[in-house]
Amino acid sequence: MSLKMELVFRALVLVSMGSLVFSDLQGDALYALKLAMNAQVNQLADWNQNQVNPCTWSNVICDNNNHVTSVTLSGMNFSGTLSPKIGILKTLTTLTLKGNGITGQIPKEFGNMSSLSSLDLGNNRLAGEIPSSLGDLKKLQFLTLSQNNLSGAIPESLSGLPNLINILLDSNNLTGQVPQRLFQIPKYNFTGNDLNCGRAFSKPCESDSTDSGSSNKPKIGIIVGIVGGILILLLFGGLLFFLCKGRHKGYRREVFVDVAGEVDRRIAFGQLKRFAYRELQLATENFSEKNILGQGGFGKVYKGELPDKTKIAVKRLTDFESPGGDAAFQREVEMISVAVHRNLLRLMGFCTTQSERLLVYPYMPNLSVAYRLRERKPEEAVLVWETRKRVALGAARGLEYLHEHCNPKIIHRDVKAANVLLDEDFEAVVGDFGLAKLVDVRKTNVTTQVRGTMGHIAPEYLSTGKSSERTDVFGYGIMLLELVTGQRAIDFSRLEEEDDVLLLDHVKKLEREKRLDAIVDRNLGRNYNIQEVEMVIKVALLCTQASPEDRPLMSEVVRMLEGEGLAERWEEWQHVEVTRRQEYERLQRRFDFGEDSFYNQDAIELSGGR
Q: Cα-flanking dihedrals φ and ψ of residue 442, to 5°?
């Protein structure tokens, strides 16, 4: 049964690899853009033509299906042109290239980016006409082409953009009449051109320069007065509420939760704070892209700072659906907040609006394990072996607490190095736990109810959509391999030398060949203990067995990392592994998992529904 499950798992991985082939095409398009714009050697250095997935590149944001959704390259003083290959990015929603020295024309292929909602090419040296193909961008809301050398007439096709709310074409060399329907857009600016605005239609060339503002001043004053009065009443009422509430003993009663494995240590937490949306807007500079710390299947995370200088991380959830609305979401959040452990990320508060769900956490100054392994800057220190061992044990203790000390138990569903954060002392802090409970996991199709990251997902979860604490154990095992090797769970670059694109298969092969030195992250040099490396690898392979029943519990993992019970468990595994491997190879010959299937067109199409 476990062998069939593993084969199904690999088949589904191959289907998902089709989407990574698409990532390769996206990478080619972005790399062509980099070359065309004449990026300097020190600019976009991580935009590597040989790296398949551009989702790890700087200034690029992807969704959880590895589709590029945002590219922001402002003020980088490029001197080249725009590549027409950018038109392949049909999932791109935001393209910002403002404040550069880009020359040449806007390629007509820009009209192929059908998901684009914001296009900002302002303050460059672009010339030629505005391509009429931009009228095909039916989702476009913001169009900025200000301060260029564009000429000719404004295409009539722009009048047909149903969602356009902001168009800025000022300070160009445009001529002719402005299409009348563009004056119905809430914000526009056509000044600094030789255009017919008011002469043709009695319309101003800039929406903000109308006389309606002065005529509305009395109304605005009345509105401000009313709002101010309401705020004063609310503040006064709130003060009375707290004064009265304070008379009742224990209204700010703190709850104490024992931390598993910590003798005589308790962590206190008060009532979760409910943040105002405006408060988090200000803290994150209106959720500025420059403050993005990361992005995953549950949404983006922004760095922020509260008025008292407290640094926070704000997770802006996507794809949520709370039956029962705000109250149901709040109940789930409060349940998650009860899970308090030194190796779990503490939830500070939350915010809900009609269209937003946000969670507020403390900011982790050393970011994530994945960052420290693969994305650190040259001046930042390598994650040393002693720290990696401490991270492995700390993350295990955090997961053990979620699985075996919470009632009801909490399953993480996306254990990986990117979701293990590092505090100021480089202690492991598991984040994103319980978030799967806050979103509607029914809103999926091909891989029903599956949330996670390819290469980290257990075979039974990928094939059936059913998760358990044992699926977390599998993900944790892959995370251990990341810690030891510094590599990603899936890496196509290994195809050049071998067939094992999965990190798990790669490590198994080297372990069988007794080549442990070849497994260890090269950034460590010789600064590691080979016996300890062997121990961690053995624990990882026990955690990643195909059958969930064969995997250890997290409490057993903790004991094995502490030096108890590993030898016996490993010996049992070795007895069945030889037989399992022979049977697997026999069954594998009945399926065609050849190299050509990686680029099979059917596989690419199958991945489209994910």
A: -80, -15
Strand-strand pairing, 266-269 and 255-258: antiparallel
Burial 283-301 (b: 16+ CB within 10 A, else e): bbeebeeebbbbbbbbbbb
Residue 124's nearest CA partner among 97, 143, 151 is 97
Phi–psi pair at 471, nearest 5 degrees: -70, -35
* Non-local CB neighbours of 241 within 8 Å, separated by 6+ positions: none
State mean pLDDT over 188-212.
Answer: 70
Cα–Cα dist 130/330, whole Å: 48
- Do 449 and 468 meet the contact criterion of CB atoms below 8 Å apart? no
**Catalytic choice (120, 136, 170, 414):** 414
What is the per-residue burial (b if ≥16 Cβ within 10 Å, else e) of 137-170? beebbbbbbbbbebeeebbebbbebeebebbbbb
pLDDT of 454-480, one tens digit each? 778 888 877 777 788 899 999 999 999
The pLDDT, as a whole number, for residue 139 is 94
Q: Do the Cβ atoms of 399 and 415 come closer than 8 Å? A: yes
d(CA 21, CA 18): 5
What are 225-242's pLDDT values in tens digits? 554 555 544 544 444 444
Residue 490: pLDDT band (50, 70, 90) is confident
Q: Taking Cα atoms as reference points, which of 518, 523, 497 lies closest to residue 508?
A: 518
Reported as type and span, the H/E element at residue 244 is: helix 217-246
Contact 353, 281 (CB under 8 A): no
Let me know: does 314 contact 358? Beta carbons within 8 Å. Answer: yes
Alpha-helical regions (H) of 247-312: 277-283
Strand, coil or helix: what is 53?
coil
Give the angle 525-530-533 at the CA atoms, nearest 5°.
95
Counting every residue written for the chain, the total comes to 610
Neighbour count for residue 66 (Cβ, 10 Å):
22
The closest alpha carbon to 107, from 86, 91, 88, belongs to 86
Instruction: Kindly tell me if the per-residue pLDDT of 322 is higher than 70.
Output: no
94 DSSP β-pair partners: 70, 118
Beta-bridge partner residues of 452: none
CA neighbor of 328 nearest in space, from 357, 349, 362, 297: 357
pTM to 2 decimals? 0.54
Query: Is the predicted pLDDT of residue 437 greater than 60, yes or no?
Result: no
| Cβ–Cβ under 8 Å, residues 337 and 262 | no
Full DSSP string of 416-436:
SGGGEEE-TT--EEE-STTGG
For residue range 378-433, list pLDDT tens digits in order. 888 899 999 999 999 999 999 999 888 887 788 888 888 988 999 989 999 998 87
Contact status, residue 113 vs residue 136, Cβ threshold 8 Å: no
414 is catalytic: yes
